[in-house]
Amino acid sequence: MSACRGLGGLATRACPPCAALKQQPGRLKAIHRPIGNQQQRRGGPAAAAGRARSGVSCRAAAAAPTAAEALPPRPSGAVEALLQHILVRRDTLDGTPTRRAPLDNQYLIGLVLQHREHLIIATVCLLLCTASNLAAPVLSGLLFETLVQQQPMERYAKVFMVLLAGYVLEPLLTKVYMQNAIALGEKVLATLRLELFRTLMMQKIEFFDRHSASELQGLLSVELDTMRSFVFSNCSRDRGLRAFLEAAGAILVLFWLSWRLAPVCSLVIVVTALAAGHYRKRTRPVEQAQGRALQQMGAVAHQAFENMRTVRSFAGEALERERFQSQAAASYAAGREFGRAKANFEATNRAAIHASLLMLYSWGGYLVSQGLMPISVLISGIGFTFSLMYATQGAVNTLSDLRRAAGAFERVRALIQTSDPDPSMYGALPPGAWWEVANGAEPVVEPYADKAGDAAVVSAKGGDLELRGVSFSYPLRADLPVLHDVNLILKRGTVTALVGRSGAGKSTVAALLSRFYLPQQGSILLDGVDAGSFTRGEWARAIAMVSQEPVLFSGTIADNISYGRFGKCSAAEIRAAAEAANAHEFISRLPDGYQTVVGERGTLLSGGQRQRIAIARALLKDSPVIILDEATSALDAVSEKLVQEAIQRLVSGRTVLVIAHRLSTVQAADQIVVMANGQIAERGTHEQLLAKGGPYSELMSSQGMILGSSI
Question: Which residues form the ABC transmembrane type-1 domain (predicted)?
């Protein structure tokens, strides 16, 4: 099968992103050009043809099969193609390829246009409501004029009925307008929240090292709720677009009624606008300071609540209270300054309104007395003055709300813009990516799912796991190397123990094997296949990890055990895994059994119980490779015995890496690897290493160990 070229070549099957763009060949050409260039740097047409066999990526040329094609396709080209589709979009107006961030104005407009029915209904009702409100002062003036001039009551009745109809219809139209405007805002924000969560879940692990959980939670809750509050607050009569329309409409109607009177009524607009400019200039840094203080206050509270047991054990309540109080004081100071600016602004507004009314009475009375203007226009002018007062204040408040919402949106956008998705997550991309919505493209019919190719077969059967010339330093500490030229092979079906002093790099090896990070040099292979040839899902199916402090989700025991299978397993399978992990007995004694809620991070269970739940989860996942990172170091003797029995069942017939400080637990390993200063100091069996009298013997002596226990 020919590969998708994206340029109208001889392809017989397009990749999913190209299928969505098949009606827009110009866009395909620009988007796929960089990918073709990348192919040549990766081994030319022959290598590109080999990588195209999975049907996922967009490749440029085909050639005769070579020996290299026997290897599974590397997804790097597919990753770049999909990331190009997400992050590199073409401007639909000028046809120029432009690099856009996920959260840009075009994307937001695309979200709004997805719900045109709400937008159209809300717009029509808004215009009708505005027209009704603008007509009311004019009709009121005519109504009083008929009484003052003692005109026929028929005229009075006609004007009254028209005014009555407007007063009856306006509330109904307002209801329909608000329902549709709020529905539109809720749908847009729901999509935005979901897309933001999806994007955060696709970030590299180093992204989560850099940003705290409370900060990211704040993006999804506080920041987006600020935008939600803006929608709710600005749907009323005296706020939002309605306020701007009524203010502009009132000025136009006043000039239509009397060009002599309109400038006097417009005074309130001029003064309020000047006051608003000064107000915004003064309050912008205050709002920013208050926002930072509130964010820090939330972070302090989150940290204290999350670590409450540590706080209690060290009597740290006073310290946490002081930390919180310092941030609360900063927020209070900013709030006081904001309040003073708000008070000055309101006082200026009131003075402008009163001055406008006094000038209106003086100048308008003179015009009426001289016969230059009917009294109905003066009465209408008084009504419009109050309309302008409310509309102008609403418009200013809307601008303030808009600034806060825009600030929240910018904080979200800044965080997303400064990070790139994890390339290995491309298989998790569902339809509806940023670029599709922004450009109004039809959603991709075929979801971006994991492709079952050669790598998937390898992940199912397992094989030797190898680190080949691996060097690594953590992204946040790039100047501090952690691993140096590590070469290690974990033979299939054997147990390898990784030992060494703290800081030697043992847990870093586990993190690399779990693909939390990518090595700066070297490669990681499973059964001879580079880790880059696996999607994130395929690699996750191949490797299961049980850590020293297993993390449980705040759901039920059954939910936690079945997490590795994403709920696609029977109750009998869950029970079998629990029995194999020595967990069924204590679960059965719980009032709700497998439906018992474990609490946040599993705090309602003991350490040994949490560890056995984690082992049951790994058993049910049934991965061919198991990593045990200090899995029993924090347990008492009884719990350790139960966990060790469960581990024996877990590792049977699998490739196992055991990371341990206590050497008594690893003496029966097929291979013991001693690490020191980020390098492998020596390797061999327990007896071989003891005979050498090297670092392993020193570790044994430091722990006072003798031959004995085994895994």
Answer: 120-404
Which residues neighbour 601 within 8 Å (Cβ) at sequence distance 6 or greater? 551, 552, 554
- Distance CA(189)–CA(183), nearest Å, equals 10
**How far apart, in whole angstroms, are the C-alpha atoms of residue 357 and residue 267?**
10
Cβ proximity of 222 and 298 under 8 Å: yes
Tens of pLDDT along 44-98? 333 333 333 333 333 333 333 333 333 333 334 444 444 444 433 333 333 434 4
**Which residue is it, tokens 């779990």?**
514
Question: Cβ-count burial of 646 within 10 angstroms (0-12 exposed, 13-18 middle, 19+ buried)?
Answer: buried
pLDDT in tens, 499-554: 988 888 888 998 899 888 888 899 999 888 888 778 777 788 888 888 877 778 88
Q: How far apart are CA 518 and CA 497, in angstroms?
A: 22
The residue whose two tokens read 């049977």 is 652
User: Got the DSSP string for 537-581?
Assistant: HHHHHHEEEE-SS----SSBHHHHHGGGGTT-S-HHHHHHHHHHT
pLDDT, tens only, 161-178: 998 998 999 899 999 999
Decide if 529 contacts 458 (C-beta within 8 A).
yes
Report all structural domains of the chain as residue ranges with CATH numbers, in order of start.
Answer: 16-99+425-438 (no CATH), 110-420 (1.20.1560.10), 454-702 (3.40.50.300)
Report how far apart, in Å, the C-alpha atoms of 641 and of each of 13, 633, 637, 710 are: 56, 12, 6, 12
Model pTM score: 0.64
The whole-number pLDDT of residue 457 equals: 52
Distance separating the N- and C-terminal Cα atoms of the chain: 50
Q: How many helices (H) and strands (E) does the chain have?
A: 27, 12
Residues 587 and 417: their CA atoms lie apart, in Å, by: 46
User: How many other C-beta atoms can be found within 10 angstroms of the C-beta atom of residue 337?
Assistant: 17
Look up tokens 């209690």; give the residue: 312
Bridging pattern class, strands 495-500 and 671-676 = parallel
